[in-house]
Design a protein that fits this description.
The protein is α+β, with helices and mostly antiparallel strands. It has helices spanning 63-67, 97-107, 135-143, and strands at 6-8, 11-12, 27-29, 40-41, 52-55, 72-80, 86-94, 111-113, 115-117, 120-133. It has a single domain (6-143), classed as TolA/TonB C-terminal domain, CATH 3.30.2420.10. The protein is built from three helices and ten strands.
Length: 145
């Protein structure tokens, strides 16, 4: 039986900087990570429980952009099915295609506790920002708080 109820909501996922250091030592994170790590979930009528992250995978900072000192932001729209799997992931905004590719690849590997409405697990769409920040700038931002 297909779930007919698909709810769109915006969710800003707070990702800790330490868990998102890629192999090349550049950092990818959500914008809220520097604001205390508070997740924000849009209120959707009828939804009893918003989706909750169970597994998150950090995107790899593209080498060519890291070498040029380029930073960026990607917003990924994910379709989470009623089992909590990401069945679609698409970049809806990106400062560079290479950032978009890496963010989408990482997003496809995430898993969630699915959203619920009236006690039933439902599919949902979420928007997740991925911020690509050079380590020197991330350190400067942390010091300036």
């Amino acid at each position: 039986m297909k779930t007919k109820l698909v709810i769109s909501c915006a969710i800003a996922i707070a990702l800790s900087g330490s868990s998102l250091v890629a192999a090349d030592q550049a950092t990818a994170r959500s914008p809220e990570a520097r604001d205390g790590g508070v997740s924000k979930v849009a209120h959707i009528k009828g939804m009893d429980q918003a989706p909750v992250i169970e597994t998150r995978v950090a995107p790899v900072y593209p080498r060519e952009l890291r070498e040029k000192g380029i930073q960026g932001l990607v917003t990924v729209e994910m379709l989470i099915d009623s089992t909590g799997r990401v069945v679609e992931a698409n970049a809806v905004r990106a400062t560079a295609p290479a950032f978009a590719n890496q963010a989408v690849e990482a997003a496809r590997q995430w898993t969630f506790k699915p959203a619920e409405a009236k006690g039933q697990k439902i599919s949902t769409r979420v928007l997740v920002p991925f911020e690509f920040v050079m380590p020197q700038i991330a350190a400067w931002e942390a010091d300036s708080r």
